[in-house]
Amino acid sequence: MRLQNRTAVITGAAGGIGKAIALRFAEEGAFVVVADITETPREGGTATVDAIHAAGGTAAFVRCDVSVNADVEAAVARAVAETGRLDVIVNNAAIGVDTPLHETSEADWDRVMAINAKGVFLGCRAAVRQMLGQEGIDEVRGRIVNISSQHGMIRAPNDIAYGAGKAAVVYMTRQIAGDYANHGIVCNAVAPGKILTGKTGPAIAPAMLAYSQARTPWPRLGRPLDVANAALFLASDEATYITGENLMVDGGWMAN
Ligand SMILES: NC(=O)c1ccc[n+]([C@@H]2O[C@H](COP(=O)([O-])OP(=O)(O)OC[C@H]3O[C@@H](n4cnc5c(N)ncnc54)[C@H](O)[C@@H]3O)[C@@H](O)[C@H]2O)c1
Asked: Is the beta carbon of 149 within 6 A of some atom in ligand 1?
């Protein structure tokens, strides 16, 4: 029970990787705030909060668009209402538009940046504001885990807005880690490689899956639980002297 008596806000936790992180954190004892625009998992199946309750864990859903500051603050407030503190935020919500530069509309660019970059800024800011006012447990006032991507470091095929937003996440992770280390706030990122979730469309087109497997030395593509276990480690007391890191969970993609 590595997160016993801890609270965690996880954005985009209705489905996919966010749901796996929420279930994993709840298994380890956390009270989980599922912050998403919908309760319905994209891939179908049980809503995250119901799945956590069925497994004996504790959780609450807060409808939250991460590009709207009031929504993000309300999600943090829900965690604080439970125990008086926010121990962990996982900024996971993100979208892609699957277009190259010359086909990317200004509106699409703005929407991706509003969720993938500004949403992470708002999540980190709300978390840091809360964490600065709470006592540390051992050395740590709170922890931030941002979900980035290998495509924050190398080009995102046919999705310049997504890649630019993820590069911003990698940057913010380092800046926040450096700026708030003295205040006992730990900030890291997890960079998934190709993870099979409930995504439809270009993400699972045969050519895209073949490209991803060709880039991935490990003989399978990733699972949401692969990412959830890494997020759990960075959210736990085991990872205190690790900050500003962008942990690849990519089957070796970036080593290839
Ligand atoms: N799946 C992959 O291969 C992969 C690879 C690298 C990085 N990632 C990253 O992992 C994270 C999760 O990806 P996924 O594959 O599970 O995606 P997904 O599309 O399956 O799930 C994303 C979740 O975010 C929610 N969401 C969308 N817009 C939101 C908003 N404005 N506010 C709050 N919630 C919102 C959706 O409702 C959904 O529940 C993302 O940050 C993504 O960029 C995924």
From this structure: yes
**Sequence ranges of the domains in the chain:** 7-255
Q: Tell me if residue 106 falls in helix, strand or coil.
A: helix
Q: DSSP 3-state assignment of 36?
A: strand
List the helix and strand counts (H, then E) for the chain.
8, 7
Indicate whether residue 66 lines ligand 1 (CB < 6 A). yes
Angle formed by the axes of helices 118-132 and 69-83, nearest 10°: 30
The domain made up of 7-255 has a fold known as Rossmann fold (3.40.50)
pTM above 0.90, yes or no: yes
- Residues comprising the chain, all counted: 256
162 catalytic residue (yes or no): yes
Per-residue pLDDT of the chain (256 residues; tens, 9 = 90+): 999 999 999 999 999 999 999 999 999 999 999 999 999 999 999 999 999 999 999 999 999 999 999 999 999 999 999 999 999 999 999 999 999 999 999 999 999 999 999 999 999 999 999 999 999 999 999 999 999 999 999 999 899 999 999 999 999 999 999 999 999 999 999 999 999 998 888 888 999 999 999 999 999 999 999 999 999 999 999 999 999 999 999 999 999 9
Mutating to test ligand 1, I would choose from 19, 43, 63, 92 the residue with most ligand atoms within 8 A of its C-beta, which is 92
The 8-class DSSP code of residue 12 comes to T
